[in-house]
Amino acid sequence: MDFNTTDEQTMLRDTVSRYLADTYSFDNRMKTVNSGKHWNPAVWKAFAEELGILGAPFSEAHGGLGGGAVENMIVMEEIGRALVIEPYLPTVVIAGGALKAAGGPLADAVIPEIIAGKAIIAFAYAEPQGRYNLADLRTAAKKDGAGYVLNGHKSVVYSAPYATHLLVTVRSGGGQRDKDGVSLFLIPASLKGITRRDYPTVDGSAASEVYFENVAVGAEHMIGGEGSALPLIEQIVDEGTAAVCAEACGVTRVLHATTLDYAKQRKQFGKAIGDFQVIQHRLVDMFMEVEQAVSITLMATLKLDTAERAAAVSAAKSKVGKACKFVGQNAVQIHGGIGISNELAVGHYFKRSTMIEGQFGSVDHHLRRYEKLIID
Amino acid sequence: MDLNFSAEDIAFRDDVRAFIKDSYPPHLNGKIEEGEELSKEDFLSWHKVLAKKGWIAPAWPVQYGGTGWTSVQRYIWSEETARADAIRLMPFGLSMVGPVIYTFGTPEQKAKFLPGILSGDVWWCQGYSEPGAGSDLANLRTKAERFTGDDGKEYYKVNGQKTWTTMAQHADWGFFLVRTNPTAKAQEGISFLLIDMKSPGITVRPIITLGGEHEVNEVWLEDVIVPADQRIYEENKGWTCAKFLLAHERTGIAGVAASKRGVERIKSIARSELDEGETLIQNPFFKRKIAELEVDLSALEYTELRTLAGESSGKGPGPESSLLKIKGTEIQQRITELALEAAGHYGAPYFRGFGEGDNEHPIGPDYTHRTAPTYFNMRKTSIYGGSNEIQRNIIAKMVLGL
Q: The domain containing residue B45 runs over which residues?
């Protein structure tokens, strides 16, 4: 057993952390959010060229750093700490994960584009009726000669307004929630017949409702087998979920540290509010939540390539979801009024931690999945 | 003991229900359900209807404009207005400064200020909290120095800063806690002043909160001249008014009737949202959470009724009202948590300042549009009116004798 990072991994953390500390201040982030663009191409360029982190989980053969899940975890935790809104999660972790797992010509073509910062990929998996069931799909791909025709509507696709590609889950056969008949496509976002309604999200990003109307797609855009992509989709969503847990560790660590600092500074009744036992115990409870979130995220990350993957990820996400709520709510509570002001960073960390609670499944969803996998 | 309404109460309820149905301004329909932000005009349009009817201040004594209703009738009234999704009136005049004025004010002050509160012609705000005086309200620094003017009358010169002043951007008048004796101990040396918000030297600056709302403000006072006859009660005894007002604020804060509507809304959302091919309300986890919420709300409701019964027997709202504040706000917050959870992916889109057009492509169901901002916004409830930690201190000290 070894919980130490390698020298390369430590260096990766230091590089990302230093870059974000130097350039990704809260003020700069808010400038990007308020610009209406909700991402900063210069940051993405730096991720690709200065830091080289867009290649972190990819093989050296593809031009990457030869890392994997631990590298994604390290980057995502730093992303959480700085409240980064640029699309590392959908592009590198999720789409990158799908391409890595599937291999073949599409992977050979797109992975180098990801690493170079040229391919920005949004993950279009949610649908209005589907909630967290990845197979509950109405968006359909119908065979048409050598290719397919896509029709349907995807909900709340983060980063879609500026993505170059869409990673789309579709039903190519079977009934609406069948495990069989699910396929996965990686397609250019500019294909004819794709329309979007774009909007900002409460946590500072941008997303879209994406509509497909008779979109002609060549068979070479399919990842995994026709109608048999659900296991691959479950795998990449689990990898994405573990990555979001890592992001949550960063977010909640900052929430705790900021609140601890505030409790030491803020004076009421002639002393620091951190001198009151009720505040002390609350900060201790927050600390314990963060530590346990970090532990279980590490566990899930290290089990991503094992048969225990699904249960480990659901265990982690349920625990992390609770930590996000507890730490987020109490950070605001201990800050008092200013915790609710939009001017301070703490409120924005709270908003992100709140959105993470539901991302890729609520606490209940993951506990239910855990029950089915382990208890039943 | 009897939990049932009398025949008179039922007749009263029917009257109230018919009145609301006939008189509630139609343009306000749906605004509460969808968590929309309300304008000053929205608040006033309902206020004026009630003022005309004479039902604007059910809690006030009859001689000052109250309705003379029993506590059960007042309970029915709040139930029925919540049931109809009527907007909640701003509390600053009706529930806060009004009772202070008719309890502690001079006949002249009552004559001058009470009519405007009832009619809605005067919008009030509350100048309590300061950057250094939140939970520790008595630590306030805004100072009022007394002097005799050239006209021979008495005045105060007020300097300081207030914060978290709700709806000050609309306010005509504010009631302020100010320090009139800098050498006295914390609670002593504070006075309760009514200040015209148009006075020279007052600056109101917006504070934007997490959901993007402009509800609260900073209020800066620089050499603001206030006639001494705008002080309520004795100089340096303002804390008496403040304590009285805080206890009043806490009873209304339980928000039982509104929370009942909130629970109904969650149920209706959960009946239309889908989960694994069924409706969300069939999800045993979600259904259990609604059941727990409803049970807790019931316990709170009967606790409030017991408290009200005590109040009508002349005991007045005491430190027990802190219990109502804590449990009431916890329930209000849980309702917003469940709404956000029910919204699923559609909790994320942010609609403020976002064009409405393009009806062809809606962004999720309407009821999801404000779930996240409302959830963020409602975190304030466990902070304002004396944080829930402070309320527990009050119960520990005043009720349990610890």
A: 7-89
Same domain, B194 and B285: no
Domain containing B354 — which CATH number?
1.20.140.10
Q: What are phi and psi of B26, to 5 degrees?
A: -60, -30
Q: How far is A133 from chain B (nearest CA, A)?
A: 7
d(CA B355, CA B349): 13
The size of chain B, in residues, is 402
Question: For B19-69, what is each residue's pLDDT tens digit?
Answer: 999 999 999 988 777 667 788 999 999 999 999 999 999 989 999 999 999
- List, for chain A, all residue ranges whose pLDDT scores fall below the cut of 70: none
Reported ipTM exceeds the 0.90 cut: yes
How would you label A358-368 residue by residue, b for 16+ Cβ within 10 Å and e otherwise? bbbbbbbbbbb
Inter-chain CB proximity B346 and A155 less than 8 Å: yes
Q: How far apart are CA A25 and CA A23, in angstroms?
A: 6
Q: Is residue B119 part of a domain?
A: no
Non-local CB neighbours of B140 within 8 Å, separated by 6+ positions: B128, B130, B132, B133, B160, B177, B178, B179, B190
Q: What is the pTM of this model?
A: 0.96
Same-domain status, B16 and B57: yes
CA distance B189 to B345: 53
d(CA A75, CA A88): 9
What residues contact residue A127 under an 8 Å CB cut-off, 6+ apart? A136, A137, A138, A139, A152, A153, A154, A155
Q: Is residue B81 part of a domain?
A: yes
Domains in chain B, number: 3
Q: Are A88 and A79 in contact (CB under 8 A)?
A: yes
Same domain, B40 and B173: no
* Domains of chain A, each with CATH number or no CATH: 7-119 (1.10.540.10), 123-228 (2.40.110.10), 231-375 (1.20.140.10)
* Amino acid at the residue B330: E
Among the residues of B34-160, which ranges form H helices? 40-53, 71-83, 91, 98-104, 107-119
| Among chain B residues, CA nearest to A364 | B285
* A92: closest CA of chain B, how far (Å): 22
